[in-house]
Amino acid sequence: MQDQRRHQRIRFGVPPNVKIGFGGVVGTGYIENLSLSGLMVRSSMNLEIGRLAGCEFSIFSSPLIDVPVTIVSKVGNLYGGRFQTGPINQIVIEDAIDAALAKGEASILSVHELSGRKVMRISGGLNGAQ
Fold this sequence. Notes:
Elements: E1 9-12, E2 17-22, E3 25-34, E4 38-43, E5 52-57, E6 65-75, E7 78-83, H1 87-102, E8 106-114, E9 117-124
Antiparallel strand pairs: 1-3, 1-8, 2-3, 2-5, 3-4, 4-7, 5-6, 6-7, 8-9
């Protein structure tokens, strides 16, 4: 069985910063992983599942990406968000992901089933070196 997600997740050697706007408060966090459809953010803010939040981030040298997200999951201070994006943001996000992978600043994270067990596979340029 393959990962049920539509888009592959990428992880970063150095998690990029993200600025978050929620309920009239602006805070910060770090991107744990990113895909074309959403992101996983670590933040001390108290975000609520089902609510909209604003996210502003740059993936290393990419243009600034400013996109609303719907919070879809929470585990401790880790939040999953689904992008509410238009075609321009989608292109900017895809270009930023491709550039990070090509420069070895990110790796692809996928989950597969092998002999009845789920196996996480990480492939790409990350090796912990700076």
